[in-house]
Amino acid sequence: MVRGPRVDRAGDFAHHTAFRAVVVRHAGRGGAKAAGDGGLQGGPAVPGAGIPGDGVAHPVPGAGQPVAGADEVKAPRTEIARPATLAEALALLATEDARILAGGQSLGAALNLRLDAPALLVDINGIPGLDRITLEDRHLVFGPLVRHRAVLESPLVAREVPVLAQVMPHVAHPAIRNRGTTAGSIAYADPAGEMPAVAHLMAAELVLASASGERVVSARDFFLGIYDTLRAPEEMLVAIRWPRTGPNERFAFGEVTRRRGDFASVGFVARAVIEAGLVRGIALTAFASEPAPVLCPAAEGAIGQRLTPGLAADLAGAIAADLDPMPSLAGSAEQKRAQARALARRVLMDLAA
Ligand SMILES: Cc1cc2nc3c(=O)[nH]c(=O)nc-3n(C[C@H](O)[C@H](O)[C@H](O)COP(=O)(O)OP(=O)(O)OC[C@H]3O[C@@H](n4cnc5c(N)ncnc54)[C@H](O)[C@@H]3O)c2cc1C
Q1: Domain membership flag for residue 235
Q2: Comparing C-alpha atoms, which of 96, 85, 79 is closest to residue 126?
Q3: What residue spans carry the Gly residues bias annotation (predicted)?
Q4: pLDDT tens for residues 67-80?
Q5: Distance (Å) from CA 251 to ligand 1 centroid
């Protein structure tokens, strides 16, 4: 089982709450770590350096003494390996205190904030063929370097697993989507991540490989908690197998964020088969409010029925009541439950539309 960055108190989770807590803890120690530990050093403030003409003093890296505390938010010393094959990468994972470097969008922040300090980064970006999206009989298969942007722009994804194309615009911003990978997002298991939620909803098959073999885990079982998954440290997520969407299937998505592209405080993604106006099957996954994506069984009360506004409101009440939201900077548990009730109703009505 893999635990990602340290989060001391699950109850305090909000996105970046953990990051802030660590920064505050370091700052409280009042300063520099042992010399030579490899943290990128900020130099003293030099008037006029940095942004021309702003008249503000900016730190210049490497210029003289470190600014007090500046080294506390930079990455620890870490070796980087750039394997040319998957086998080499898996061998490195088996023998070292190593982390895979995929898009680096989450790992970079975790290292800079000293939430993680591995001995070795295994940069998989030089391994050919890991960015493929392939169509199989019953699945659309992503390699571990399929980037968010490629998902957003792929006609194959839009046709075969349209919920991915529907949700992806809500993942971060274009600069992050250019580098960030779906596999990295799922492996990282941020409770507020949209891709873990979609994988959970779709019961995507996650192929985990190590030097000693492969196993396949359902995304319904994979997520254990905040940054915590079933993946063993020596395992790499080498493929995500998305079930191809069938006829009459519909999807809906909603999340509460402060701004579009931010991490959500409450979110739902839903899948239903609706025939002749009646719900034949439904699944609803809640994310962000809980430590890991969870299925909302109360949504199954819609089966055999027409999704009217009244039914959606009743089901939304039951769905929200079943949740156990984490209080965070984004709101108290009760605020999040109220948001969940309103959002679940809207998502259910979107399914019916
Ligand atoms: C400002 C900002 C805003 C963001 N907003 C959102 C958002 O709204 N929604 C959202 O979902 N995400 C968001 N993200 C995260 C983004 O989607 C990341 O790209 C993603 O979480 C991690 O993907 P990555 O490829 O960058 O992984 P990396 O940062 O390279 O790796 C993340 C972790 O996963 C591990 N890992 C990576 N690939 C694998 C693999 N194949 N097998 C096993 N372990 C692996 C790494 O070792 C590391 O521990 C945001 C990021 C930033 C910086």
Answers
A1: yes
A2: 85
A3: 33-42
A4: 445 555 588 889 99
A5: 24
Of 187, 213, 243, the residue at which a domain comes to its end is 243
Q: Looking at the structure, do residues 237 and 253 belong to the same domain, yes or no?
A: no
CATH of the domain at 281: 3.30.390.50
Q: Is residue 18 in a domain?
A: no
Q: Are 347 and 314 in contact (CB under 8 A)?
A: no
Spell out which residues line ligand 1, taking CB within 6 angstroms.
4, 99-107, 109, 144, 171-172, 176, 179-181, 183-185, 187-188, 190, 193-195, 236-237, 261-263
Contacts of 204 (CB under 8 A, 6+ apart): 198, 218, 219, 240, 241, 242, 243
pTM as predicted: 0.84
Residue 39 domain-assigned (yes or no): no
CA distance 301 to 68: 58
C-alpha distance from residue 341 to each of 76, 118, 119, 200 (Å): 43, 41, 45, 21
pLDDT digits (tens, 9 = 90+) for 277-324: 999 999 999 999 999 999 999 999 999 999 999 999 999 999 999 999
pLDDT of residue 23: 30
* Token pair in block for residue 331: 């709101």
Q: Which of 188, 210, 243 is the last residue of a domain?
A: 243
How far is 150 from 273, CA to CA, in rounded Å? 27
